[in-house]
Design a protein that fits this description.
Helices cover 22% and strands 26% of the residues. It is of the alpha+beta class.
């Protein structure tokens, strides 16, 4: 049923309607049993309204196209949005969820942002583009490399767990970027964690979570079975073990990646940390570069307590030129 417009009449400006291929805007209305609207993709100013009884039927109608670049859902209800995206997502490359909060800044149904993937399954072609850096990597060749940890370290220029370490009595923090090598390492410890340490850390930081301060409650916890040290106390003690305090090529610690706490530490446990140079990334426009260090903290039984990467900025040469 034609709701608006006349398929047999067109008005144009600056052109001849009889000599060109023109069509006036048309709005149609179908029913739930309509099939042509799903089988024929109209490239032109044509839209079809399809009534639906509920979100489940709306999903079923949206999936009949057997693949689409984009669908738009207008709702302010997160539950409805989730149900529709989960139900219709596999048939669409992108879903725009529009509501009162994002309508003003929306780029529109047909305008993807460069950081979003663009493409769709089935009838939409099965292609994919954009997606930020993913769009670049998607088109690059990928090659799997098999080998020993030492060989993988040499090929990838990133230290792999199990590869050799160099421990020669020189603390890695005393080496400049020019002197540092993958696998340079230091092992420090052990250091005992006492109940007084745990209580002082709790009071000093304000982190008085019951697992650190309430023996009865901590004992009832199925993960701990008694009072345990703070994870960040463990990381702090580890830093105290491996850090070289004097001025040197390490200029700053600017972060920690992939921190995981694995084995609870109880008062009386001891900690040992091994720090290994994992990746070296010189900066072309600066006198320093980034160094990523693999960090593993273990207890007296050799069980891993915490694992993480320490990120530092290291001078290319030391002492600096001119000093």
């Amino acid at each position: 049923t034609v709701v608006f417009g006349d398929p047999d009449h067109v008005e144009v400006r600056g052109a001849d309607a009889d000599r060109g291929a023109f069509m006036s805007p048309i709005l149609l209305c179908g029913s739930g049993s309509s099939t042509a609207v799903h089988d024929v993709e109209a490239f032109g100013p044509v839209a079809t309204l399809l009534p639906y009884d509920g979100i489940a039927q709306a999903i079923e109608l949206a999936r009949r196209g057997q693949g689409s670049l984009v669908a738009s859902l207008v709702t302010h209800d997160p539950a409805v949005a989730r149900e529709f995206v989960l139900g219709a997502g596999s048939a669409h490359g992108r879903i725009l969820v529009l509501d009162r909060d994002d309508a003003r800044e929306s780029t529109g149904h047909g305008s993807p942002l460069p950081q979003l993937v663009h493409g769709g399954p089935g009838r939409a072609g099965g292609g994919e583009e954009l997606g930020g850096i993913r769009g670049v990597l998607h088109l690059m060749q990928r090659t799997a490399v098999q080998g020993s940890p030492d060989l993988l370290t040499g090929v990838g220029r990133r230290w792999v767990s199990g590869a050799q370490r160099r421990v020669d009595g020189v603390h890695p923090f005393r080496r400049s970027l020019a002197e540092l090598r993958l696998g340079d390492a230091v092992t420090a410890g052990p250091r005992e964690v006492t109940l007084a340490d745990v209580e002082h850390f709790a009071e000093f930081t304000g982190d008085t979570f019951y697992a650190h301060m309430d023996e009865a409650a901590a004992a009832a916890n199925p993960l701990f079975g008694g009072r345990v040290a703070h994870g960040y106390l463990v990381v702090s003690f580890a830093a105290g073990l491996f850090v070289d305090p004097d001025p040197g090529p390490v200029l700053a610690n600017y972060g920690v990646d992939s921190l995981r706490f694995l084995t609870p530490v109880k008062p009386g446990d001891t900690l040992t940390v091994t720090l290994t140079c994992k990746q070296i990334s010189p900066r072309g426009d600066a006198d320093y570069g980034e160094v990523r260090w693999d960090s593993v903290v273990v207890n007296a039984a050799g069980l891993p307590v915490a694992t993480y990467d320490v990120l530092t900025m290291v001078a290319k040469t030391w002492p600096p030129a001119g000093t």
